[in-house]
DNA repair protein
Amino acid sequence: MNRGSEWRIWDLHFHTPSSYDYQDRSVNNQDIINILSENNVSVVAITDHHIIDIERIQDLQRLGKEKNIVVLPGIEFCSELGGTEAIHFIGIFPETANLNTIWTKIQGKCNLTQEEINSKGQERILCSFKETSSLIIELGGLVTIHAGKKSNSIEGITNKLLVKQEFKQELLSTYHPLLEVGKIEDVESYKSKVFPNIKFSLPIIMCSDNHNIREYATKEKMWIKADMTFEGLKQILFEPEERVRIQTAKPDEKDIYKVIDRIKLDEKGFWQGEIPLNSNLNTIIGGRSTGKSSLLKAIAAKHGSTDVSEKDFIKDHLEGVFIQWKDGGKTDGHEIEYFAQSYMHKIASKPEETNKLVKDIIRSKKEGELLNNCKIESEDISKRIRDSVYILFKDQDDISSIKKDLLEKGNKAGVIEQLKQLKSKASELQKNSAMTGEESTTFEEQTRHVQEKKKLIVNAENDLSILAKLLEDIPFASSFIDKYPFIKLSFARNQNDIEQYFNTLRQKYNEEWNRSIGSLMEATQKEKEKLSSEVQSIENEDIYKKGLRVIEDNKELRDVNNKIKEEEEKLADINKQEQQLQQITNHQTEILQTVIDDHCSFKDKANGVCDALKISHGELGISVATDLHSSEMQDFLQSRLNQRGYERKNYVQELLEEYNKNNKTHISNFLRELLSEDVLLKNWNNPRDVAIDFFTRNWYGLNFILSYQEDDFRQMSEGKQAFVILKLLLDFSDKKCPILIDQPEDSLDNRAIYKELVAYIKEKKKERQIILVSHNSNVVVSADAENIIVANQEGVNNKNENGVKFQYTNGALENTKQRDETSSYILSSQGIREHICDILEGGRIAFEKREQKYGFKR
């Protein structure tokens, strides 16, 4: 019975007595098929060493049909790669391939004639990996290669062959081989290390490599979800993560009483036939009015769904619909969930319906109680903000005082210009001094050096002062308990260990901080002493002393130089105060940012608490979330801020709007304007008190909210809202019964379809059986639907068998057959793949994208 892609046991590396190293020559083909059948193997690839035994393979294929076993032809090669161990690789070909042509070409191009083998011996026959792999692909086959810790593995490539990793990546990306590992741990190693490194994934397989059927065994079963065909095998290249599993139990197994087995239709002239269902994803496709939704409604109505209207015409055709469940039962005692067309959109578009759904879910779940912790956290944040605001305004007073002093000292540019003129005049006077021109030049140079070095000494002293303050500060002051008061691990040992690790690291980094600051202070002190020594050295030189005497003797020059000294001291004082101003400003900026971060953390902390309260599933959550008390904030601002004038009235409204957006820049600007007194306040208010009252208050309350990917449901597009409703209906449900969905894409936007719905369905189908009507190729192809049901309505150019109005056929994505124009009936005229390409818009492109996802071309 064809249910589309199903999980079956495959063995893609298997030897027969045709291999030179087979262990029991008494084995015959019937023995092989019988024992494979006993081990529930559905598909086997015959991969004898250096030979395609056509006669044996054809006989095995004949015998396999009797046991429902598909035999794929193949051959195992030894490559020239590797060191002492040649790397083995395999070519596997379609079950319908012309073996005479394939074997002839392989013999010719790979020198595998009997004469060549007899001459060199089986173990010395080496085939070029690149040339042979290209030939395999050219002949329509797939390449597999030993990998991981398996003997004769690709890991054995010697370093002499270019750079080992680069060469290996080239082979994998060019020939896309299936990677045959010998140990379970190799699977995780490739997934966690190799694939992230090479930026693409390949199928990982594990096979028996059996050389004696009477001792048949595998380290673990390999399951492939596909039709029992070579085309089915190719699907694991397109979906390497989803289509192949190495494990004991059959994947994605569901309770038999939670899976519909098949649907039988038997109403003369209306519909007839049987539709087997897959336990994962079944998609129903077809043109307009072909019976897609009718079939889905019939299944729902047979199970008593009230979402199928009593006036729907399908109600008149239910007597000819028979549902068979996998446990053998009919509809009685079995439950389904049915979401009619536009069902999600209808709920999403009506807030009262959405709220009702959310409340129903909350009532069905247990909530934690952490509101007291939320209150305590808010009080702690308020205290920190209060202390920080006091510091901010103290810094503001210091800033204002320094700016006032700087203003009194005059314009810095004017002082610099004054110095320039004075030095020019002193230079003129110097020319008339008793010093020679060369001496004057030397003296001027010495004076310049002394001034520069003294400036550097002042800078060094300033740095030493700052470093000394940093040395007094402890950057990592908080212990683990202070830092994370609400983290309580379940295991006492874990709690003790994490506290010990944290506190040890804190002590270590504090010590490292002190050593680093001490080292900087020591280096700076040495530099200062060096500069002082250099100044002293210059001042002791004869020409410098002579210059000082000349200056002393020259009254006018002395007066000019005194003025220069006075202005230089003023400039140095200005520079020093500017440095202080910058330091205080930087400190104020840091504290201000701390206040803003702390204030905004009211919402963040509340959300953190809400995370513990909310009911979530993946990225979807029903939570107790924050809600801005905008009316209270508006009352607060209007009672304190002077709003005379149009601009001031808008100020409060704009602040409210930006605050609700959690706009840190705007909130920060409000605090800066309070600091600078640019905000006009009503008579009895002062900026500091307003700042303390505003920023220490938590303006957020707690409210129930629906979110997805951290987006508020109310802010989403209608399409995304509908998708969230679908997730809400399913993710918070404890049901495991089948899900029936009619054209969910009609409620969603295109972006949601591909990026959200497809990924969601791919995961959900592993948990629950899904029957889904769709006209979108992405939902069918990209979601890797296991079973595609094609619907057709009788028409002039679309005939059904026996002339019934509605007819259906089903199969896997990989079911492919070119259209037979001579066929009388549309459904049987071509394969499922071809139906998808004809019926669904973008179907061909969807297949191409899927098959080229890893660079593999069909």
Remarks:
- Residues 375 and 606 are 9 Å apart (CA to CA).
